[in-house]
# Entry
Amino acid sequence: MPHSPNSATQTSLPLTFFDIFWLIPLNQRLFFYEFPNPQTTLTNTILPKLKHSLSVTLQHYLPLTGNLMWSPDSDKLIVPYSEGYAAHPAVLDGKSIAMFMHSWASICKRGGDSTLTPELTPFYDRTIVNDPSNIEQAYLNG
# Structure
């Protein structure tokens, strides 16, 4: 069963003051690869397998399916979960993108088996981040 942040009923991930620092415009990347096989192999076999395994992998990485927004209940930034894909560094740092890509590759290689090894399982518990100096508010106030 895919892991969900904090509980099965949570539908958003609050950002911490570590994340807020990254709320700046960034470059986007697009990767191109040579595909020496017939196009029918790509469209009939590989793309459906990639699409299915991405769908399964995103069940573990729910914050990647959301957009940044202000919480209607507080002055905190959150990432509500929805359908789609986002890779903003406030949601996904370098280690997390590597974990995500390895998870996706692993799930794709195993034909969609959703089990992840502990080292590829994301950790979303933001309650471990303490902010006794209220740095988050200082960042938000500019």
Observations:
- The chain is about 35% helix and 5% strand.
